[in-house]
Design brief:
- This protein is of the alpha/beta class.
- The strands form 3 sheets. It has a 5-stranded mixed sheet. It has a 3-stranded mixed sheet with strand order 1-5-4. A two-stranded parallel ribbon has the order 2-10.
- Strand 8 and strand 9 form a beta hairpin.
- The protein is globular, with a radius of gyration of 19 Å.
- 32% of the residues are buried.
Amino acid sequence: MEMPATFSTLSQSSLQDYVDCARRFQLRYLERLSYPAIESEPALENEKHQQEGEYFHRLVQQYLIGIPGEQISKLANTPNLQRWWENFIASPDFRGLGDFGSLYPEATLSAPLGNHRLLAKYDLIAIENSKAVIYDWKTYRRRPRNEWLSARMQTRVYRALLVRAGTHLNNGRPFEPEQIEMVYWFADFPDEPARFAYTSAQYKRDWDTLVKLAEEIQNASSYPLTDDRTKCSYCPYRSYCDRGVRAGDVEQAEAETEAEDLFDVNFEQVGEIEF
């Protein structure tokens, strides 16, 4: 199957899908098939949790652009939202955001990656004296292991892309990898953030890996199924592959199935700050 000419943008989610299962990548991004199966059980509970997670991100974004916390707290109108919001406001990580010189919530960066374009939408990039901290909010029910997070495409893409495309955020100077840190903050585990520093060696490894993946995707003639059948239990395309009907457990599935929504990104605006 040839790569469609219209498929030119790669993200951490599409790359993660390709790494996890090339067949899933094909069905989701190339054939753009509708989801024939639910991702996890119980379905309605999981859907509500995902919607609350998205809404929590919007609440934090509004707070970071200057809307008073007292006003935002009135919108946290479910037990989960109220708990997450209270944890956020009380967290030392975010009480100290005022110490940063510049905050860029919901920032989008883009850079060429082979014949593709690599795109990432960040929850927050905070900068002070050429040090950049990438914050990402998670509403997982279970706190993942740091080793798992470190290997994820999101961790690798977000840090590498800030080096590659963050010059305009640093007074016209590229960030050195050692100036970057990524922090995952868990709304239900506010005292257990995951912090990942960066080095030049890690950046070279990450960017080389991303270039290789982009080349593989560009030149792929087939998209084999994953050999790890545990991933199929929460894949919405499993019925296409005769890999079962029953969905997996919600706590196991949520981290694997999350995906950023890049369809509302203004690509023309991103193009202006590409380098």
